[in-house]
């Protein structure tokens, strides 16, 4: 039924051990207006980048290997579709304006050297287990040594969850921010009835 | 992959879709932001009288015999029917909640699949599993094991005991005497999510037993790489 030997080997090769604990604390709560981001998604819906989990030519070898392994065990366009905004320069600048200088200061990153993406996951869709490749940031700024932040855009709703190694992140308030450490496997899901909006912020901490 | 429907501008409130008698008999806070709740108090204890590893392995083997998840949810727009696999459940009390998840929403037959093993299909496992709950009437009791593959979810809902109603043939359930219990068959793993009200489970152990008190909104997902296996007992109290 479920031939997950390749994904298991992928994790084993990287010594991923769920029985070891990763300490993860909330970094801060940004002062954001959820309605502003949800409205942005609504009015720019036609311009969203829609993607689902599968290999793509611009991903790193690591990213593609993770996608292949996920597809092999049943992840596809029906359960991993994401709409996102921010890869486009205009969207990225608008999102940076919506986040605002005070919040960038709280994150400790330079807004001029950052990449923001607003993610929308509809009910029934998940982001399969993976670790980040930072390909988008590297393409933009020529370096991959960046920090990835998870920012909750809306107050928590039932069925909205994020797992970072052995930590379940849930029950958040809009603006709650966590650092996703590099090379740490994480996954998220929406099994509620409302869309899940989150923001990923990537930048070099000063 | 354009959506075929508009996203609701206002917040969908699932409370409005729950049968009135459940809301009256089992009042609950219905506030996802509430912090001072006791939603986690339904944990009972760990059951070590069953060989959960052997049962889990047996269940996977049984699923592998046919490779076809028997259960999944979808909305039949042509016939305006809520479908649970091949069953039209329009007349079941789950109807209004299912409409929220399925009609003009994105839960569907591609992301809600699970394998189900129920009652007599348990073979030699049936008797020991039945004996775990002497407080339930033997002739008014159902046991189901769900194997949820990666990439699939069970949308958040409040139990209305639809399968139990179908099995017993009762026209109208008496929620005051119905109970549901749940055990995890394998230890917690990557991407195995379960929210029970405002409590999100983690680090569970095989055999952990939960009293799924009626009236509390809950759901689950598997965004990991291994199947998630749970067993559910539904029945009428003696």
Short description:
The complex is a heterodimer of chains A (206) and B (238). By secondary structure, chain A is of the alpha+beta class.
CATH class of the domain at 43-68 and 111-237 in chain B: Mainly Beta
How do the strands line up in the largest sheet of chain A? 1-9-6-11-4-3-2
Count of discrete structural domains of chain A? 1
| Structure classification of chain A | alpha+beta
Which class of chain A in CATH terms? Mainly Beta
How big a fraction of the residues of chain B is strand? 25-35%
Order of helices and strands of chain A: HEHEHEHHEEHEEEEEE
Distance between the termini of chain B: 51 Å
* Average pLDDT reading of chain B: 94
The fourth-level CATH homologous superfamily of chain A is: Jelly Rolls
The major beta sheet of chain A can be summarized as:
7 strands, antiparallel
Q: Give the helix proportion of chain B (percent range).
A: 10-25%
Q: How would you state the average pLDDT of chain A, rounded? A: 95
Strands of chain B, total number: 13
CATH architecture of chain A: Sandwich
Report the portion of residues of chain A in β strands.
25-35%
Give structural notes.
- Chain A is an alpha+beta fold.
- In chain A, 27% of the residues lie in helices and 30% in strands.
- Chain A has six helices and eleven strands.
- Chain A starts with a helix and ends with a strand.
- With 238 residues, chain B is of the alpha+beta class.
- Chain B has a six-stranded antiparallel β-sheet, with helices on both faces. In chain B, strands 7-12-9-10 form a four-stranded antiparallel β-sheet. A three-stranded antiparallel β-sheet of chain B has the order 2-3-4, covered by helices on one side.
- Chain B contains five helices and 13 strands.
- Chain B has a domain of 153 residues: Sandwich (Jelly Rolls), CATH 2.60.120.10.
- Classes of the chains: A alpha+beta (206), B alpha+beta (238).
């Amino acid at each position: 039924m479920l031939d997950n030997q390749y994904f298991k080997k992928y994790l084993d090769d990287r010594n991923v051990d769920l029985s070891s604990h990763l300490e993860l604390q909330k970094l801060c709560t940004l002062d954001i207006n959820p309605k502003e981001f949800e409205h942005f998604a609504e009015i720019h819906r036609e311009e969203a980048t829609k993607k689902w989990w599968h290999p793509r030519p611009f991903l790193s070898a690591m990213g593609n290997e993770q996608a292949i392994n996920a597809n092999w065990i049943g992840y596809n366009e029906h359960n991993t579709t994401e709409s996102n905004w921010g890869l486009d320069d205009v969207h990225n600048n608008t999102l940076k304006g919506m986040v605002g200088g005070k919040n960038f200061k709280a994150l400790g990153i330079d807004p001029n050297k950052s990449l923001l993406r607003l993610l929308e996951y509809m009910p029934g869709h998940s982001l399969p287990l993976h670790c980040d490749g930072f390909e988008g940031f590297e393409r933009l700024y020529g370096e991959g040594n960046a920090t990835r932040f998870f920012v909750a855009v809306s107050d928590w709703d039932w069925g909205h969850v994020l797992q970072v190694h052995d930590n379940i992140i849930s029950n958040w308030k809009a603006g709650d921010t966590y650092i996703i450490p590099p090379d740490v496997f994480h996954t998220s899901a929406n099994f509620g009835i409302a869309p899940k909006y989150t923001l990923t912020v990537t930048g070099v901490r000063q | 992959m354009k959506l075929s429907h508009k996203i609701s501008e206002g917040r969908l409130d699932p409370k409005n879709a729950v049968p009135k008698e459940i809301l009256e008999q089992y009042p609950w806070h219905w506030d996802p932001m509430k912090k001072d709740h006791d939603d986690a108090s339904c944990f009972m204890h760990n059951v070590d009288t069953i060989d959960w590893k052997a049962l889990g392995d047996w269940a996977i083997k049984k699923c592998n015999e046919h490779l076809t998840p028997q259960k999944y949810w979808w909305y039949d727009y042509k016939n305006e029917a809520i479908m649970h696999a091949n069953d039209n459940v329009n007349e079941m009390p789950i109807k209004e909640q299912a409409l929220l998840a399925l009609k003009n929403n994105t839960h569907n037959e591609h992301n809600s699949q699970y394998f189900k093993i129920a009652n007599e299909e348990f073979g030699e496992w049936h008797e020991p599993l039945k004996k775990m709950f002497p407080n339930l009437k033997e002739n008014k009791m159902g046991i189901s094991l769900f194997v949820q593959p990666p990439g699939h979810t069970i949308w958040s809902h409040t139990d209305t005991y639809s399968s139990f109603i179908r099995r017993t043939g009762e026209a109208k359930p008496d929620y005051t005497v119905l109970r549901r219990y749940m055990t995890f068959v394998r230890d917690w793993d990557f991407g195995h999510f379960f929210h029970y009200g405002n409590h999100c489970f983690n680090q569970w152990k095989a055999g952990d037993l939960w009293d799924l008190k009626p009236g509390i909104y809950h759901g689950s997902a598997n965004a990991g790489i291994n199947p998630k296996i749970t067993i559910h007992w539904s029945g009428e109290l003696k």
